[in-house]
Amino acid sequence: MTIEIRLPALGQTADEMEIILWHKQIGDKVSIAEPLLVVETDKAQVDVESPEEGVLLKIVAEPGTVLNTGDLVAYVGNEGEII
User: Fold this and answer.
1) Is 65 exposed, middle or buried (0-12, 13-18, 19+ CB in 10 A)?
2) Which of 16, 19, 50 is nearest to 33 (CA)?
3) What is the DSSP string of 5-38?
4) Is the entire prediction scored with pTM above 0.85?
5) What is the pLDDT at residue 14?
């Protein structure tokens, strides 16, 4: 089953975040609580942990993209799934 990964709320003032880098690439296995990507808020760079386990199927937001809390960044699912 394909699962959407969305940016979590990282604090009261961190509504807008820029993606700095991805720790994982498409096809990599991810575990719950494993660092998935790094975002920069107005105050700090923060690792975003995966809320799900599976294979990273698709990255929707590349480094340099500015997003808000709740925006879609990637899909995780079973190996071989098509989105």
Assistant:
1) middle
2) 50
3) EEPPP-STT--EEEEEEESS-TT-EE-TTSEEEE
4) yes
5) 64
